[in-house]
Design a protein that fits this description.
The complex is a heterodimer of chains A (179) and B (324).
Chain A lengths: L3 E4 L5 E6 L1 H4 L2 E2 L9 E6 L2 H11 L2 E6 L7 H14 L7 E5 L2 E2 L3 E2 L10 E2 L7 E4 L3 E4 H4 L3 H5 L8 H11 L13
Parallel strand pairs in A: 3-9
Antiparallel strand pairs in A: 1-2, 2-4, 4-6, 5-6, 5-10, 7-8, 10-11
Chain B lengths: L5 H7 L4 H13 L5 E9 L2 E8 L1 H17 L15 H8 L4 E7 L2 H4 L2 H10 L4 H11 L1 E3 L2 E3 L7 H12 L1 H7 L4 E5 L2 E6 L6 H16 L3 E8 L5 E2 L2 E2 L8 H16 L2 H10 L8 H15 L5 H24 L1
Antiparallel strand pairs in B: 1-2, 3-7, 3-8, 4-5, 6-7, 9-10
The chains are: A alpha+beta (179), B alpha+beta (324).
């Protein structure tokens, strides 16, 4: 199996870990090319509402039925159908976001043009427990660039584009390495 | 729900995995990067060592504290550093017993090892890797030992949770009839009957603490009802009271401030228990604050006496300032 499936006890949530070797050329917000990917699956909207804020502070979330085609999407589909045995049309998927110096979301990845993306920013939602929930594209200051075909979720500009809208600038600045 | 992966932990702490890993590695190899040692004199040439935490790590600690407070609820057996627990309630719980036995854990925070923190977190449902990472982030390493540093905001919470996990259930099992109160590193065991041997209890508790946690006990005291029962800085025989010696010394300072030369009293006060005070106004302010605290442990007449003398001292100070 080219992914690891872990169901969280007592809740309808699962974590699918895809190793670097199996992830292919898929752009994922906040996850570099050499890192393994952790994607969180929620059985339905109720599970999402109950558990998302329990799991962490900030995520990119979308409905699984809107996921763009890619190798990872196929693996997630297999995990949902075979391991979790959930209805794919009901499932939501989320990727935890990390923060870097200055309170920006860590979204640096290579250009999305050369590859497929795990999210579409016009449908994906950015959830941040401290500042609220936003549609990624509507909140992005590069909205026009996107409409001109210049960028998509997962490129470096996302961090810049979303920074002015949602950053709380609370990430500690002392004693940390440069990212 | 505990963060299930390192990335989710980083997410909860509004930082990134790379930084968490960097800090954890450095804390193991070179804790001095994040902690500076401060020695506070305890008298008789002895020192209390506390650690000043670097701002980056201190911020992380406060976020970890917030996270752990949410994930690991208190069992109700800790009476210090817990939200909603008042000293007066704790004192009421301990007052008016036939026998009170008390002891201290020696170097409490330093005695709580990283291993104990890890095991406690695992017990509460944290995955092994995450429990270890959190424990590493919260502990300091000196030589071969990793332990909770005194001075970090998260240490009181973790020491309480470790005690609740390792010690409190065993104490309750050993003495179900006693009222057990653990106030940080002070343990008080109160019995309603005077047929219990305090010395025996001390022996059993010391062994139990040693076996369950590996901590050493000191300052052990057996206080039957016919002697003064001291705990939490109060006298607990019938109801919680301000100790007489403390009351008399406070009364003397206030009386002298009201009736004698105030600068002379300030010089005396600096030597006898108010070392940081620089002016008479500061001293009166400090006494006022202390009186607000002690009000709950004083009788009405004693409080009124102190308060009226303090008002006289304040008026005198104002007049002297206007003249000067």
């Amino acid at each position: 199996m080219s992914y690891e499936f872990k169901k969280i006890p007592n809740v309808e949530v699962a974590i699918v870990t895809v190793p670097q070797s199996a992830r292919g050329m898929v752009t994922i917000p906040g996850v570099g090319w050499t890192a393994a990917v952790e994607i969180i699956l929620f059985k339905d909207e109720f599970s999402l509402a109950d558990n998302l804020s329990e799991l962490g502070d900030c995520f990119i979330v979308d409905k699984f039925k809107d996921i763009p085609d890619s190798g990872i999407a196929g693996k997630l589909r297999a995990a949902i159908l075979c391991d979790a045995q959930w209805e794919t049309n009901e499932v939501f998927y989320a990727v935890p976001l990390e923060m870097v110096k200055g309170g920006r979301y860590k979204m640096d990845s290579l250009s999305v043009r050369a590859s497929s993306s795990l999210f579409k920013c016009y449908s994906a939602t950015l959830f941040d427990s401290e500042v609220g929930t936003f549609n990624c594209l509507e909140s992005c200051s590069f909205q026009v660039d996107h409409l001109m075909g210049g960028c998509s979720l997962g490129v470096t500009q996302c961090s810049e584009g979303l920074y002015h809208h949602v950053s709380t600038n609370k990430e500690a600045t002392g004693q940390q390495p440069e990212d | 729900m505990f963060p299930q992966t390192r990335r989710l932990l980083a997410n909860n702490l509004r930082t990134n995995t790379k930084r968490l890993t960097y800090i954890a590695t450095e804390l193991k190899e070179n804790s001095d990067l994040f902690y500076s040692e401060i020695r506070i004199p305890k008298g008789r040439g002895r020192y209390r060592v506390v650690y000043k935490v670097a701002p980056g790590l201190a911020h992380l600690h406060s976020l970890l504290k917030r996270l752990l407070e949410r994930l690991i609820p208190a069992t109700g057996t800790s009476y210090a550093y817990e939200t909603g627990v008042k000293l007066s309630d704790t004192a009421t719980r301990m007052q008016a017993h036939k026998l009170l036995v008390s002891l201290d854990f020696k170097n409490h925070f330093t005695s709580v090892s990283m291993w104990q923190v890890t095991k406690m977190l695992e017990h509460h449902g944290a995955p092994k890797e995450i429990a270890f990472l959190i424990a590493r982030l919260c502990c300091i390493t000196k030589g071969k030992r990793s332990f909770l540093p005194q001075g970090s905001v998260v240490s009181p919470l973790l020491s309480n949770r470790v005690s609740e996990h390792l010690l409190d259930p065993k104490l309750a099992e050993e003495y179900p009839e006693a009222k057990i109160t653990r106030y940080s590193d002070n343990l008080y065991i109160a019995f309603a009957s005077n047929e219990v041997s305090g010395v025996k209890v001390l022996g059993v508790i010391k062994k139990l603490v040693r076996d369950a946690t590996g901590w050493k006990c000191h300052k052990c005291r057996v206080m039957p009802y016919y002697r003064q029962q001291r705990g939490l800085g109060l006298v607990l025989n019938e109801k919680a009271n301000m100790p007489r010696s403390k009351y008399l010394s406070m009364k003397a300072i206030i009386f002298n401030l009201a009736n004698k030369e105030q600068n002379e009293q300030l010089t005396k006060a600096k030597v006898t228990g108010y070392p940081g005070v620089e002016t008479v106004v500061e001293l009166i302010d400090k006494l006022n604050h202390q009186l607000v605290y002690w009000k709950q442990f004083l009788t009405e007449s004693k409080f009124t006496k102190l308060k009226s003398n303090l008002q006289l001292a304040e008026e005198k100070c104002n007049i002297e300032q206007q003249l000067g």
